[in-house]
Amino acid sequence: MVDEADDGSELGGASDGSARPVGARSSKQPAAKKSSPKKAPSEKSKRGSTEQSIGVLSVVMPCYNELHTVAECLDAVLTRPEVGEVLIVDDGSTDGTREVLATFDDPRVKVILQPVNRGKGAALRRGFEEATRPFVIVQDADLEYDPNDYPRVLAPLIDGRADVVYGSRFAGGDAHRVLFYWHSLGNKVLTLASNLFTDLNLTDMETCYKAFRREVIQSIAIEEDRFGFEPEITAKVAAANWRVFEVGISYNGRSYADGKKIGWRDGVRALYCIVRYSPLGERWMRR
User: Fold this and answer.
1) Which residues of the chain have pLDDT under 50?
2) Which of 255, 234, 226, 283 has its CA nearest to residue 91?
3) 42 domain-assigned
4) Among residues 130, 114, 131, which one has the least CA distance to residue 225?
5) pLDDT of residue 26
6) 153 touches 165 (CB < 8 A)
7) Three-state DSSP class for residue 89
8) What pLDDT shows up at residue 185?
9) Cα–Cα dist 72/182, whole Å
């Protein structure tokens, strides 16, 4: 289907990549219960968990000039049983991406065409509005993030521990392509700055893999049109005291020759957004 868009607790360090809370101050979080020795899950409970996750996920995929990767990425997403719908927001592509998307006839796929390029944040805003499944995740249309990590990211949401889950490229022992040192350092600096203003304990604020309960993401007004979405959504999630978890994921980063689009100006904008959407920034804007 193709739509034409309108114009206009204690903080743990899970080194094995398992889920850990990163915001323990939430008033929405249930009171802690005394822990008891955990039994290994039976085959029956494993099957029940798998059945519980079938079709529960809305995948929102912003897309701009991804001719060489979008088909393979979408194929990978559609193999996952958790996926109930894929909302692809094409953000004014001019390289033939739209023609590729038109060849997909899977009923789970809905293509939304932005009339002009407006940015990742604007594309996500439109996709989140259209989501109908219990959980929502962001999936870039390149091949940097692996949909096989969906079960790991979704687990804290499905079992009711989390409202929001971040998939961290810097936590856990999964395979990572080794690329740019300065990009990695920049990500860590931005994450540190974000943590200072939000009082969270994230290791990867800029990650693409952010998953939400649908009512959470649809309750947040997204203002940023470009890559400022990442610090904005993090600040607003923290301010609302939602329960945030983080899990380790794999990562196959790409170079600028491969089509990477984010640049240093986006890093400067991210620093602005960290301050702008913090409680201090919000108070200043209301003056």
Assistant:
1) 7-13, 24, 26-27, 29-36, 45-46, 256, 259
2) 226
3) no
4) 114
5) 47
6) yes
7) strand
8) 85
9) 29
Q: H helices then E strands: how many in the chain?
A: 10, 9
For residues 147 and 80, is the Cβ–Cβ distance under 8 A? yes
> pLDDT tens digits for 114-159?
999 999 999 999 999 999 999 999 999 999 999 999 999 999 999 9
Q: Per the domain annotation, does 41 fall within a domain? A: no
Pairs from 74-81 (Cβ < 8 Å, separation ≥ 24): 74/101, 74/104, 74/109, 74/141, 76/146, 76/147, 76/148, 77/139, 77/147, 78/106, 78/108, 78/109, 79/147, 80/147, 80/148, 80/150, 81/50, 81/53, 81/54, 81/55
Domain for residue 20, yes or no? no
Domain limits at 85?
Answer: 2-7+54-285
To which H or E segment does residue 271 belong? helix 264-276
CATH number of the domain to which 100 belongs: 3.90.550.10
In the chain, the number of structural domains is 1
The model's pLDDT over 213-237, given as tens digits with 9 standing for 90+, comes to 999 999 999 999 998 999 999 999 9
CA distances in angstroms from 197 to 192, 232, 274, 275, 281, listed in the order given: 9, 11, 7, 7, 10
